[in-house]
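seq:
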Amino acid sequence: MLENGKIFVVVVVLALILVGIFVYLFTIDRKVTKLEKEVEKISEPEK
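struct:
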């Protein structure tokens, strides 16, 4: 596994997967926050 730099390929692939997961979670968080603000804005006049 250590010969021919294969370990570096594994590390790079894992890093790319983790970066992809973090980017996905960040975008989902932004969308949820936007939806929460919209729901809050819509429900305010009812109070």
